[in-house]
Amino acid sequence: MKKVVVAITGASGSIYAVRLLEVLLVAGMDVHLTISANAVSVFKQELGLKIDLDNFDISQILPEGDNQPEDSKLMSLRSDSASAYAMSSVFSESDITRERLTYHHYCDFYSGIASGSFLTDGMIICPCSTGTMASIANGLSSNLIHRAADVHLKEHRKLIVVPRETPISTLQLANLHKLSSNGAIILPASPGFYHGALTIHDLIDFIVGRICDQLGINHNLSQRWGE
C-alpha cells in the first residue's frame, strides 16, 4: 500500500483538496494529512466546512452518511484498487477509512512525517499558498508542512506542489523555479478544457487526475487526449 503525505494550505481551491482526499482513500492509499491554520478559514469561506485542528476528524472534510450520491469514478477506483478494503466508502464512518488516514497537527514537529526516516511514496501540497511555496523554496521550516516538504526534497522523494494563484509575480516565479530545480513537481491548478468538461467537478477532477498520474494511480477521472 502506498503511503503519501497530503498538506492543505490557505490558498483558494479547497475543493481540490477534498476531492483529492476522496480519491486517494478510495484508491487504497495510506494518507498522512496535515492542514495549516489559514486553510481552516478557506474551508469555511469556500465550502462552509468547520475544521477543528485540535480535535480533527475526517468527517469534518468528507461528509458522512448514506445519502451521498454515488460516484461512478470512485466506483471505478474501488474496483481497480488492490486494497483489501476495495469496497469501502470515503463517505462512511467506517474504521477502514480511519485506519488509512492519519492526521498530524501542523505544529507537531515530533510527527513521523518530520523525519526522513519515515518512509513515504510522496507528498502533495494541494492547494499550495504562495507563502508556503516561498518558505519551502528558501529552506524555512516554521511548521510541519514546511518541514515535511523539506524532508521530501532532501530525500529526493516526489513532492507535488499545486499552486492556485493568478497572476504570478516575478518573486513567485523565482520560488517556483527554485522548487522545480530542486526536484519538486509544479502542478498548477489550471484545468484543461479539451476533455469535454461540463461541470466544475469535471475541472476539479482534471487536476486531481493529473496528481494521480504523478503518483502512478490508475483512474478515469477525466478523458485523456487521444482516447
Strand content: 5-15%
Estimate nothing, just give the exact number of structural domains.
Answer: 1
CATH topology: Rossmann fold
State mean pLDDT (0 to 100 scale): 89
- Percent range for helical residues? 25-40%
Overall body shape: globular
Parts with pLDDT < 50 across at least 5 consecutive residues: 81-96
Output the helix-strand order. Answer: EHEHHHEEHHEHEH
CATH class: Alpha Beta
Instruction: Please state the second-level CATH architecture.
Output: 3-Layer(aba) Sandwich
CATH 4th-level superfamily: Flavin prenyltransferase-like
Distance N to C terminus: 29 Å
Q: Provide the gyration radius in Å.
A: 17 Å
Strand order of the largest sheet: 3-2-1-4-5-6
Largest sheet entry:
6 strands, parallel
**Structural class estimated from helices and strands:** alpha/beta
Number of DSSP-assigned strands: 6
How many helix segments?
A: 8
Task: Give a brief description.
This protein starts with a strand and ends in a 12-residue tail after the last helix. It has a single domain, classed as Flavin prenyltransferase-like (Rossmann fold, 3-Layer(aba) Sandwich).
What topology emerges from the helices and strands here?
Layout: E1 3-8, H1 14-26, E2 30-35, H2 37-47, H3 72-80, H4 95-100, E3 101-103, E4 123-128, H5 130-137, H6 144-154, E5 159-163, H7 170-181, E6 185-186, H8 200-215
Parallel strand pairs: 1-2, 1-4, 2-3, 4-5, 5-6
